[in-house]
Amino acid sequence: MARYSVSPLTVDSLVMHADISATIVGDKNTEFSGITQDSRNVEPGDILCCVRGDLFDGHQFISEAVSRGAAAVLVDHVDESIESSVVQIVVADVRLVLGRIASAAFRHPASSLKMIGITGTNGKTTTASILGSLLTAHGASVHVMGTLTGARTTPESIDLHAQLRTCVDSGVDHVVMEVSSHALEHRRVDGIVFDVVIFTNLGHDHLDFHGTMENYFSAKRRLFASELARAAIVNADDSYGNRLLREASIRTLSYSSSDLSNVVVAASNVSFSWKNLDVRLPIGGSYAVMNALAAISAASELGIPNERIVSGCSSVQTVPGRFESIPNDEDIDVVVDFAHTPEALEGLLISAREITRAGLIVVFGCGGDRDNAKRPLMGDIASRGADLVIITSDNPRNEDPERIVAEVMAGVEVNRALVSSIVNREKAIESAILGAKRGDMVVIAGKGHETTQETNGVMSPSSDVAIAAAALRKRKEKTK
Length: 480
Hints:
Blueprint: E1 4-10, H1 11-18, E2 23-25, E3 31-36, E4 46-49, H2 62-67, E5 72-75, E6 87-90, H3 94-105, E7 114-119, H4 124-137, E8 142-145, H5 157-169, E9 174-178, H6 181-185, E10 196-199, H7 207-210, H8 213-221, E11 231-235, H9 239-247, E12 251-255, E13 260-265, E14 270-274, E15 277-281, H10 287-301, H11 306-314, E16 324-325, E17 333-337, H12 342-355, E18 360-364, H13 374-385, E19 388-391, H14 401-409, E20 418-421, H15 425-435, E21 441-445, E22 452-455, E23 458-461, H16 464-478
Parallel strand pairs: 3-4, 4-5, 5-6, 7-9, 7-10, 8-9, 10-11, 11-12, 17-21, 18-19, 18-21, 19-20
Antiparallel strand pairs: 1-3, 2-6, 13-14, 14-15, 16-17, 22-23
Helix pairs in contact: 1-3, 3-5, 4-10, 4-11, 12-13, 13-14, 15-16
């Protein structure tokens, strides 16, 4: 939540261009030249947006902002203690209008960009990466925004629109953005009308935030209305996707595995036939096929010719932490993947089983301070899908990692697979790789591209890719 400079704008113009209902207390012709949610970053002439959050209420820091020279504050009630020279923009709920306010403050940058939004439980990052590659191959200047580019999948409203303004100013013409359910619930993407939106799927995740699958779906569905999008590409193979196809209020097209033929899946590449065209991508795993199909369908909707789509697919780069194959000459396959939901883990293991030459080993854990109902579900899926399971730690945050492991173990079905637990993630990965036999596949799931492990508020360096590479070197030394 940084502070950003903006071209000077009057408070009255801001409210008018944001198209919100607000009461202005003070001189409506007051100009501001910066915007932030953080009172510590306020500079003279800024507007402070006071959001009520889970831990802090921005209204509590108004006096600090005023002492730093704030020209205006965006609030949900009139504060009589504020000096009259500071303008108060009073709305019913600051969070619900902040997207529109930020868009107006940065002169509506999204309107100068071709905007593509991708939502769903799994596959957003890979789909975004593939689509970005297709657009680039077509000659577009593309910025991909999501899990791999920031602390949040979808940035907070002010950060988001500031990034879009930077895109416009630097000559970018297309933005491909992952849109999370949290962002939709908190209205972060308000102020954007996406040219195309994509729905990949909906699975068990984030119920600690949404409470129920219906609430989770309702948050996702917000993206498929005329206020936020012009056209949609929806996965018809997903049950919630079928609901969207029936309920979306915008032009909606579907994609399905039935659109494809001659599908071939390997650890490092996939190929298939689509519209009588032969498509090949240098990324592995069966669910990469559906992610590619989503991206291809969106590219076609955006007017990219089929021959450009095919050539663009061949130049796609490996997506970090998404069925990422770790090269080695030990005659074992090692794959690192971000799968951290029941559906994603199940899909990952099905895909791995299809291509493994011998046994299938999986190392995974569940994060702390997150939806704990999925833990035994993932234990059950792992014990059904792999031959050997090692349950370990995965960002325990403020929870006891031993307890998390025990909750995962509670879902394990005996006699399905050999199951053990090693809480230390590095040791768990090393044990799996050192113990693998020739032809085995080791799947390391949960953290993917992440390079840290969070324990009791402390972020420690931890990369599954680096740990796996080190274990492979150790294995090589032992076999000399």
